[in-house]
C-alpha cells in the first residue's frame, strides 16, 4: 500500500484537527457540547509556500527552456531545408554540366570522325588522281627527254 505524505507539517495538521473537533470528541468523552469553530481556513505553512514558489519558478524555467529548444529546432529545420534545396540545386547543376560535357565530347568525336573521313577521301582522291595522271606524266616526260 502506498503511503502519501502531506505537504502540511505535522504541527499544522494537529492544529487543524484540534480546531475542527471539540475536545470531548477526540478524548472519547460523552460530552455533547459543541465547540465553536474559530478558524476554518487553514493557514499556509511558510515552508510550503516557499516550496510552491520554488516549484513554480522551476516550471517557468523549464517552460522557457522548452520554448528555447523549440525555437532552436525550428531554426535547425529551416537550415536543413535550405541545405536540402542547395543540394538539389547543386545536383541539377552537376547533371546539366555532365550533360553539356557529354554533348561537347560527342561533337568533338563527330568532328574528329569527320576529319578522319575527309582525310581518307582526300587520300583516295589524290591517289586516284595520281594513278590516272602518272601514265600521262611519264609519257610527257619521255617526250621532253627526247
* Average pLDDT level: 82
What structural class is derived from the secondary structure elements?
A: mainly alpha
User: What spatial form do the alpha-carbon principal axes imply?
Assistant: rod-shaped
Query: Total strand count, please?
Result: 0
Tell me what portion of residues adopts beta-strand conformation: under 5%
Number of helices: 3
> What order do the SSEs take from the amino end to the carboxyl end, as H and E?
HHH
Biggest β-sheet description: none
Poorly predicted runs are: none
Alpha-carbon distance between the two ends: 142 Å
What is the number of independent domains?
2
Question: Could you tell me the radius of gyration in angstroms?
Answer: 54 Å
- Percent in helix: over 70%
Features of the shown structure:
single chain, 146 residues, mainly alpha, rod-shaped
Description:
The structure is a single chain. The longest helix is centred in the middle third of the chain and has 100 residues, at 46-145. The chain is mainly α. The protein folds into two domains: 9-43, no CATH class; 50-129. It has helices spanning 10-20, 23-27, 46-145. The termini are far apart. The chain is 79% helix and 0% strand. 0% of the residues are buried. The mean pLDDT is 82.
